[in-house]
Amino acid sequence: MYFSPAENFDFLAPKQDRFLKSFQQYLKSHLLSGIIAGIFLLGIFLGAILVKHSSAETLMVLRRLIGNYVEQRRVLSFSGVVSSTFFSIFSSLLILFFCGFCTIAQLIILAIPFLKGLGYGFSVGMLYAEHGTKAIAYVTVLMLPAMVLGALLLVAASRSSLKMSISLLHTTLNDAEQNSRQRMKRYVLRYLLFTGICLLIAIADAVVYQKFNGLFFL
User: Fold this and answer.
1) Rounded distance, CA 59 to CA 21, Å?
2) Quick check: 92 and 147 in contact, CB under 8 A?
3) pLDDT tens-digit series, residues 182-207
């Protein structure tokens, strides 16, 4: 009995359809996170590029700031590194938390990951400009882990705040009676979780720094 090539692969169609539907659902559910992550990466890219095109006066100020940052990290105790990393991320979380309760704060919420990325881009760009290839190991081991984990946390927090802000705006415009108390309770609990994760990131950053700081000289 002869089967055409199309008939031979008919049994694959249901699997392909399920895969496509699952992929589409995944993209749809993570679209907002992807947009926020893209904004963060854009900030990093622009921060690194701006270092190259900044004026001499601006570069001098940045050199002082980055130099002071590296020097201060060397002399900080374990608890000092934990506090420094924690409050660096927590300050952004705090702004995002309150923005979530504002119905017109969507642009501010999106600006937070962009500005954070801009700061990361400036910092890494200045280290490379100042120390060249010697900065690669320093950035990879002592800065990148906390930066990546902090970025993921900020993306999740920004997504949560954005959805909360949009939801409150929708409720206000439509004068709808919804169980806003439960929504706000979940929102607050989520941010308590974010704060706990922020503390864990700070502790992990301090552990890595205390273990490997002596291997790098900038």
Assistant:
1) 50
2) no
3) 888 899 999 999 999 999 999 999 99
